[in-house]
Amino acid sequence: MCGIFAYIGPRDSAQVCIDGLKHLEYRGYDSAGLAGILEGKIHSCKEIGKIHSLESTWLQNPHPLKLAIAHTRWATHGKPSRENAHPHLDATHSVAVVHNGIIENHQALRHMLRELGVNFYSDTDSEVIAQLIQHSYEGDLLAAVQKALTYLKGFWAIAVIHKDHPDQIVAAARENPIAIAYSLERQEVFVSSDANALHAPDLDVLFLRNDEIALVMAHRVDIYGDNSLPVTRHAEKLLLENETASKNGFDHFMLKEIFEQPQAIQQAMHNRFIEDFGTAEFEAFPLAPSELQAIKRILILGCGTSWHAGCIAASLFEDIARIPTQAEIASEFRYKNPIISEETLVVAISQSGETLDTIAAVREVRAKGAKVLSICNVRNSTLVRESDACLFLRAGPEISVCSTKAFTSQLTVLALFGLLMARLRHMDKTTGQAFLAEFHDLPDKVAKVLRQQEQIQRLAKKYSQFEHFFFLGRHYMYAACLEGALKLKEISYLNAIGYPAGEMKHGPIALVNPLLATVALCGNARTYEKILSNLMEIKARNGPILALAPEGCQEITSIADDVLWLPPICDELAAIPYAAASQLFAYYIARERGTEIDQPRNLAKSVTVE
Ligand code: F6R
User: Fold this and answer.
1) Residue 610, SS3?
2) Are 460 and 589 in contact (CB under 8 A)?
3) How many angstroms separate the CA atoms of 103 and 75, rounded?
4) What tens digit of pLDDT does each residue of 521-545 get?
């Protein structure tokens, strides 16, 4: 989704910003632009499409800018176009602004400014910010931004420049991240909406909090609170993920990340077992065993794939730790009026740690006094900073918009946490050790699934002719079906519905016909017999069936048209290898259909809007 990068310092600012935008590319965008100041004039350049288009246009007529702001846009208000791309300039070309977020009252503000004779040049909500700042300007850029922000409703991360202040960038944040990283020695400052885009060495970093504004100059950064008073903030050392974004010879990041799963799962488990006690432990974990024992209820929050991981974890926590658990979609939950007792632990799951709905829900529960444990992949993320404790996935950067290795790493970490909670309650040591043995086999079992790549590709070729799919499963496999269906729809644009197999007869079976394929995830031993009956009902209505089933369960061959055999595994962890198989299936269907796999249409990696 939208990304901000800005720079002030001795280097070629435009090029630094273009390079910075390249680190934001993975988030998804449809246009990009930059602006800077030279000799009392704002120079800007914008392009639809990829950053290299912006770069080549800029390089046709470059300017040695000492300061620049830049942006990748993911369209919300107005279609992707040069006019709608950021930076937005005010009508007098004095101010340039890049903005992430949404200005909810932009229509009213437009109307007000038009009445004052201001002309608008784009369809975006963001343009009103530039116009308002210029309208509020009386010689002091910081004061103008402070005043302009008082008119705005919504949320934002912004970086602003003014032609008469060639040594200043003003940045501000509400509910959207802004990281400011600097080197006093080199007299340079970087501003970005994603700290992981900051790839310079030895930087100190500050994160703006809600309603803070920063005045950024090459040699200093001053922060002001919402009362306009200066705020003292100690900088942290910037910890960078040291893996670079390379496809390592794979055709797509998605395929690379699918194949990284055995290693990612290994990483998620590394040093997190206590074999002798049959339990799990987590590094630098601030919650004491007595605090964990006091928890009477768990509430899990997440969106999309992360919510699916939460649904599986909810069943697991209840099954093995006997703790009542509910998994809620964060975007829905934040508009409820939840009852949060002191004994509730909130577990917030997010690969990126920047999903706005999840962060907003976390803020809501923390305001009600809940402790929040986040399960996250990105160390410098907003969610991590706003949680009481975090369990990191250690999956390495996930670049593909379609989440794969993060999901199976989430499931691994959540299952280990479930084990810890169970052992702190009534699970005995021997049962804990038996569960740990299942974890040990997990990377190999996933690798075994991935070795069936060619067979999965053949099945995908056959099933790519269908336009409609049901993914059916029961118990743990039901949420695995939601995830399998999501993978298929997001990268192949096919209609795929994840459904509990036992619910088909209550309505959806009316849809079954020879043109609708069913993918049945039969990896749950406890409900295996039950799903066979459900699939018989599909077969009786001539619905084609591809079953993913444990090796040795031969009964399925008389029902399904095709069977992909998966290694037997306990119910609690079965979603992991079944997810890997579903991911590969979706990947190869998308290839058959020729879709853009790493950057599917309309989707962004980090969803930083409501
Ligand atoms: C699907 C996918 C999304 C994300 C969702 C939450 O493949 O990637 O559904 O899972 O946008 O993102 P995070 O986990 O970063 O909060």
Assistant:
1) coil
2) yes
3) 14
4) 999 999 999 999 999 999 999 999 9
The structure tokens 């007299």 sit at: 187
Task: Say what the alpha-carbon torsion angle 465, 469, 475, 480 is, to the nearest 10 degrees.
Answer: 60
- What is the DSSP annotation of 488-527? HHHHH--EEEEEEGGGGGGTGGGG-STTEEEEEE---GGG
Q: What distance in Å separates the CA atoms of residue 597 and residue 239, rounded to the nearest whole number?
A: 30
Helix (H, G, I), strand (E, B), or coil: what is residue 294?
coil
Asked if residue 103 lies in contact with residue 129, where contact means CB atoms within 8 angstroms, the answer is yes
Alpha helices in 25-83 (DSSP H): 51-60
CA–CA dist 204, 226 (Å, integer)? 23
| Ranges of H-type helices in 424-464 | 429-450, 453-463
The single-letter DSSP state of residue 175 is: B
Sheet holding 545-550, edge to edge: 495-500, 468-473, 516-521, 545-550, 562-566
| Cα angle 346-348-350, degrees, rounded to a multiple of 5 | 175
Cα–Cα dist 479/484, whole Å: 9
pTM of the model: 0.81
| Tokens at 581, concatenated | 């198989």
Nearest CA, atom 9, ligand 1:
304
Nearest CA to ligand 1 atom 8: 403
Q: In the annotation, is 605 catalytic?
A: yes
pLDDT tens sequence across 545-600: 999 999 999 999 999 999 999 999 999 999 999 999 999 999 999 999 998 888 77
Atom of ligand 1 nearest to the CA of 383: 16
